[in-house]
Amino acid sequence: MIVVMKSEATDEQIEKVVSTIKELGYKAHVIKGVLRTVIGAVGDERGKPHHLESLSILEGVEKVVPILQPYKLASREFKPDNTIVKVGNVEIGGNKIVVMAGPCSVENEEQIIETAIAVKNAGASILRGGAYKPRTSPYTFQGLGEEGLKLLAKARQITGLPVVTEILDPHDLDVIAEYSDMLQIGARNAQNYALLKHVGRCNKPVLLKRGMATTITEFLMAAEYILSEGNPNVVLCERGIRTFETATRNTFDLNAIPVLKEKTHLPVLADPSHGTGYWQYVTPMALAAIAAGADGLLIEVHYKPEIAVSDGGQSLKPSKFAALMEKARAVAKAVGREI
Amino acid sequence: MIVVMKSEATDEQIEKVVSTIKELGYKAHVIKGVLRTVIGAVGDERGKPHHLESLSILEGVEKVVPILQPYKLASREFKPDNTIVKVGNVEIGGNKIVVMAGPCSVENEEQIIETAIAVKNAGASILRGGAYKPRTSPYTFQGLGEEGLKLLAKARQITGLPVVTEILDPHDLDVIAEYSDMLQIGARNAQNYALLKHVGRCNKPVLLKRGMATTITEFLMAAEYILSEGNPNVVLCERGIRTFETATRNTFDLNAIPVLKEKTHLPVLADPSHGTGYWQYVTPMALAAIAAGADGLLIEVHYKPEIAVSDGGQSLKPSKFAALMEKARAVAKAVGREI
Amino acid sequence: MIVVMKSEATDEQIEKVVSTIKELGYKAHVIKGVLRTVIGAVGDERGKPHHLESLSILEGVEKVVPILQPYKLASREFKPDNTIVKVGNVEIGGNKIVVMAGPCSVENEEQIIETAIAVKNAGASILRGGAYKPRTSPYTFQGLGEEGLKLLAKARQITGLPVVTEILDPHDLDVIAEYSDMLQIGARNAQNYALLKHVGRCNKPVLLKRGMATTITEFLMAAEYILSEGNPNVVLCERGIRTFETATRNTFDLNAIPVLKEKTHLPVLADPSHGTGYWQYVTPMALAAIAAGADGLLIEVHYKPEIAVSDGGQSLKPSKFAALMEKARAVAKAVGREI
Amino acid sequence: MIVVMKSEATDEQIEKVVSTIKELGYKAHVIKGVLRTVIGAVGDERGKPHHLESLSILEGVEKVVPILQPYKLASREFKPDNTIVKVGNVEIGGNKIVVMAGPCSVENEEQIIETAIAVKNAGASILRGGAYKPRTSPYTFQGLGEEGLKLLAKARQITGLPVVTEILDPHDLDVIAEYSDMLQIGARNAQNYALLKHVGRCNKPVLLKRGMATTITEFLMAAEYILSEGNPNVVLCERGIRTFETATRNTFDLNAIPVLKEKTHLPVLADPSHGTGYWQYVTPMALAAIAAGADGLLIEVHYKPEIAVSDGGQSLKPSKFAALMEKARAVAKAVGREI
After folding, report:
1. For D211-232, how does the pLDDT look when each residue is reduced to its tens digit (9 = 90+)?
2. Which of A226, B222, C141, C237 could in theory staple to C269 by disulfide, Cβ–Cβ 3.0 to 4.6 A?
3. Which residues numbered 297-336 in C keep a CB inside 8 Å of some CB on D?
4. Are C285 and C209 found together in one domain?
5. Is this complex's ipTM strictly greater than 0.85?
């Protein structure tokens, strides 16, 4: 932590900062500059009860600048090698790019089974589908609940594809864990720390989506919540952030992919369906995600998007998804990977 | 819902949109423009299983524009008069501006009791303090839990101030409801719909904070989740949104106050402590919030901010809080209200 | 400038950073931390040809953190007392709050004269009106040009109000300076450095609006461009930034007012008309701006807003403007100022 | 334009809206819905003096929703085929992906010549370099001016690469046009309409960068300014928008590429150097841009980035640029294009 003093700060004010740093358990290192003094506080803040940011309230302090990244278990410094997360028999994080596909919501048996068979045939290796849905409105379809989980399990039985589905309420953890192979934490719960702790204490792999206003550092801190509870099987997923642009539903932040690959050992997926919100942009942005280094894709596919109860506008028909997979294989090969 | 067709859309494509609108249970109304055709879909979407936004996937459709606001119980159209929410004996939403004050976290008995007495003496009417804390890092202080709740109850006994405290985990609902007078849903849980439903089913008033990337419409939809479960006692709180500006911790969006007062009957508070993130901006922005029409303030006060375990940099000392209250009374009077 | 090294940085890499810092004309100060080394570079970057941010490309460097604010003439450190800018006989930056009002565009003689008389009668002290308009579309009204300037001058003659109007093209500087008392740089030109230099070399006061994506630091750097060319008469104006929220046209960032008043000696105005974009929010946000410490207001007033050629939706009718002024006087008094 | 009435709007208010629409020269089409009335205004707004957005000020109106996109010449509806822009002998917008590379600023003869030779050898087909620089600070290097232009011309003579360079001030148009092959409008001038009109009246191709807060619609409107003045040779360039994320210098919005390719016939380039701001992210994001459908790249290359006077941190060394080109060729081939 670096404390920057105001140019008019007095020696007494500087001394007070130094003594407070020491009281809080750190070493202080004073650098007198041409225009102002800065004070380095040396020591690891993680685990300490008192934090140095409160120094900003002392007189003469202009600002307090953090130096250390606050995450540890998630960092590549801590673990230089890529983590491989296994979901059923599928490995995420290796050279092979993993594609998860399926409908936004499980609606009925025909829909989920037909869609599951279609995505499997096109080359997807994990089936996605929501049984508990976080809808902006309480008046829209909230998911089939346990009935939806059973249909997902049936689709898995038929296709052999492992299943990922979203959890919203800690009370549903047991039932969701029973039927699914991977738990998804959605964007709106990316900083729901209570839920993160609950999934951190179970032994299922977790697909953690970035929140709409979550910085990359905060995203890694959210992963750290899960890791620090003992669950090492976390897969990150970029799915768009919220900006001023409205031509896309979100601003799919592909930059996050190389940034995350640099800063963490965890696998990084990309969700161009939510990221863009329009089916016609899904394929180019899926290819871009692979070129940028993503370890996998999450794609919404619906056998009849125009009657989908949710997110129809961003879902691909099976034929378009198959065409996407064909192109994705070519781009993956161009960057030295396979699908 | 208005469906805008592409300029080159064929008659067949227009007819397909019209027939799909009818199949989904709405009436269709076609307007042929100079450059393109638009189709109005007449009917209330709320409660219908199929939504018209999926029409965007039909061929020839350029975009689908929603017309209705999606909230109902929260809207001023539904209930033109201001709602008054009672917390203990304190009424929120009337002519009197209500000030909630206290520390970010309950740290120990001396801290919470001394701070509670100080804010009461300065004119606050509700005590705030966190026992369960949503911290960005799993390695920082997570709150005293039930012990913190007991200290808040003790502070209430001594000062007579009702107590508001945050809930993070549905599992803690009973114990928090036992000790406190109002439940706070924090910014990171503003779209945690599972938690919103749980507090919607209990009979405690709820202080709902706006999320960092929550639009005003989504904020009202989050309130609608609580209202539609049967709990009418919701108080909204603007606390800053996330933007590119870093001179403040968040961008405290005061515009939300007149917008919300126009669109909803629910009381609207402002939290300039989180909104700005720096103690020196809290007083001017608190005064601005009152001038903009806020029904109350949420202010972080700590008897010794420089040793606070959380948010020290944005907390006011009791003397500065008392000075704020003095100025706030003058501004309230200028806009025809009292504190 | 603080250079933060990676935790795995070698001694050679640290030494290379130190030697490069010295070559570039600064002193280096090494702090060995528990987890990583940071290197302080001591010296004033302003005026130096080579900048330290390029150090980020050296091996072993994690990031480079700037310490100094980059502006000088605009800073309160440089000039602690408030600057008073005179426009005609009107002083901006003193205890008296200055209100500039008038239409978005000058449309015709009746419109500008009637509106000017109305705003004067209500208590405005400067007339605003656009003769050269920065419109998003080339197909919309671009302003009356010199004819508009003459009408503004006529309105000044009748009412005695000094006139502020926008400049878009350096080629128009002479003609605009001839007819007006103050030059406005609009939001879209806030970082048009060529234009800033041109107005910095003339002797007219400048009203500099914040850009839609301009941080407060960049805003002060834009002012610095004008000041450093020799023109000390700069008035800043907050007018809304661009965020994800669409309930208002922009997000009027009132926080900028106390932040700017802390960091600079220049006067700070607020423009709630552009800031919010809807007439019904202009009055509450104008009052909020005064409570937050603004030195003045910029308000769009049109004698017949429903037929305005630009920005009708955010313009006040004269009667509503007069009511705003009445309320503004009360709030100004409450914070120890007058209008 | 669709006018949405409030649910409580009276028949008189609806009638007033209808009559005003007619007075302004449009046809009105009323749709009575279950909960509210909407009124379609039929007619092309482009070229009309009075705009319908001002209808929002009429009583009973809830909001006014635009239907038409406001650009015409830039739209793919107007011109379905891709536009090819020729710069020297280089064609932009065809199947071949065009790479523009070079330093941020022209610093001296050795630097520009050596860098130009290096980028040519690696496969770049246009040389970029700034002679007039838009720097955030007036105290940093502002470019060599005409001397820089002469050095660019010399580099062209040696390498045969056409030259693109930025224009800031309309006064410099003649001299820049004399020495260069393409004029660049930078992000800070993306809505400097005076400058756009000036370059629209000259016969040089224009490289128009997206502004930091410019929506895609506004970006196309900026292009429309140039096109409507008679210059059809406009190339668009995505270079990052401003969001809350600080891990990258800007948020490089790759989504803009498929969106722009859908909406306009103009060529679309991508600038991952400014888009990300860090050299280590330039290569993956350059590959992603190609996969997303970009017609070309703009890459900062400096022969010695650590001593660059500007943007050193985001510049590639020639060896890294050559490696990027190698990978780019593979990705281009995978999506059916060549470099």
Report:
1. 999 999 999 999 999 999 999 9
2. C237
3. 305-310, 312-313, 315
4. yes
5. yes
